[in-house]
Amino acid sequence: MKKTISLLLALCFLAITTVPVFAAQSPWGVEPQRYTCISSPRVSYSEDNSMYTCSGKARVRNSATTTMDLYLHPSYDGGVTYKDTYLLDSKQFTGDGEYSVYGTKKKLSSDCKCRTALYIKVYNSKGQLIDSAEVYSD
Q1: How confident is the model at residue 42 (pLDDT cuts 50, 70, 90)?
Q2: pLDDT tens for residues 15-33?
Q3: With 90 as the cut, is the pLDDT of residue 122 above it?
Q4: Which helix (H) or strand (E) holds 115?
Q5: CA 71, CA 88: separation in Å to the nearest integer?
Q6: Please, which residues have CB within 8 angstroms of residue 59's CB and are 6 or more apart in sequence?
């Protein structure tokens, strides 16, 4: 009887200790939040015959100041490397909220592949960086 109870307790302990590991690796488990103050950062990119149009957006909380910089990165080797950068918009926001940046650039070349990059930095009331994010289109 003691062996049976000991075996059951050992199996229960094993089951309890393996469940959190499975939950962390499982696609159905809870994934930790990537950012502490930034949620839903996203960028969009479109092009027509003569213009590139780019935009970026994010919701920010627990912030005194937020900076958002929107760039266009062209690539002339099919997207392997992005060497040049063009600043399309740069803004500074105060407080919490959903913020966006927007910019356009005259089309560079027909053989150019481009992506949009959004860089977000969140500062507290002391001016210390407390969160940051980089988001790319592709």
Answers
A1: very high
A2: 655 544 444 443 444 444 5
A3: yes
A4: strand 113-123
A5: 5
A6: 38, 39, 40, 97, 98, 99
Give the residue among 54, 27, 67 at the shortest CA–CA distance from 136: 54
Q: State the Cα–Cα distance between residues 23 and 21, nearest whole angstrom.
A: 5
Find out whether 69 and 119 touch, Cβ atoms under 8 Å: yes
CA-to-CA dists, residue 123 to 7, 18, 129, angstroms: 54, 39, 4
Q: What's the CA gap between 16 and 14, in Å, rounded?
A: 6
pLDDT higher than threshold 70 for residue 57: yes
Identity at 106, one-letter amino acid code? K
Q: Is the entire prediction scored with pTM above 0.85?
A: no
Rounded CA separation 46/42 (Å): 14
Q: What is the DSSP string of 76-106?
A: SSSSS-----EEEEEEEEESSEEEEEEEEEE
Q: Which two tokens stand for residue 51?
A: 């213009």
Neighbours of 86 (CB within 10 A): 16
Instruction: Indicate the pLDDT class of residue 53, thresholds 50, 70 and 90.
Output: very high
